[in-house]
Amino acid sequence: MALQKRTIKIIVITVITLLIIAAFLGILLGLLLRSDKVELEVWPRGSDGSKEPKIFYKVSDNSTYLPWVRRINDTLSEYNKIRSESNARGKLVKCNYNAEASKDQVCDVDYNLFFPCTAANKYNYHTGKPCVFLKLNKVPNWKPNPYNNTESLPASMPSDLKQAIKPKSGQNEMNQVWVSCEGVSDADKNSIGSMQYIPSPYHGFPTYYFPYTKQELYLSPLVVVLFENPNLDTAINVVCKAWAKNIVEGAEQVSVRFQLKVDS
Fold first, then answer.
1. Model pTM?
2. pLDDT tens-digit series, residues 10-57
3. DSSP state string for 150-209
């Protein structure tokens, strides 16, 4: 009987020890895998969930572009869900540099301002001038240090972005995490055509959306890139970069790549 009790006691101690070890390893693994790096994301994702999609479709065949439209809808459905919640009233507010959100509020993302890149317009895919959505991942407590004047702009920053910053250098609305997109190779640059960044006139994420502090109803800001006249029947490699002084990785700004091919 004594031997049986001793055996049970050993088993209980062993199980408790294993549970403690498992909990410790779980916490340690969570810390090791936690991402506190700022990353730029492109939407729509690929059909396999790829973060660097190949957005290939044919303008004359809606069965090839409607799946891309649906993937963008799926992304924005999360915004719709949050904006329609009963407790969103009064907490989601329109922000600007003269009216930032209070402690109990969050800045709204009004994607009705993204026209022609709207669901009703199929995000312009049917015209051969598709829209791609960009956003930053959520990094708790991160606040951007923006390039808001022409004195500190990096040499590697594209000239068109520098020109966008120059006219209002130092003003409040220059406090943006800037976004630029361009072709990867010379051939890609010759094929990509002109782009429009929406909402205009600035192409960036306003700093008043940050920091993300895990607040209820938080919406990540979006930048939409409208490809106005990409060369048809051509696979174009695109790189988009986010620009802020405190998101440099190595010698490069944080970036994301994808491919775009619009067939006639």
1. 0.82
2. 665 665 555 555 444 433 333 333 347 899 999 999 988 889 999 999
3. TTS--TTS-HHHHHHHGGGTTSGGG-EEEEEEEESSHHHHHHS--EEEESSS--EEEGGG
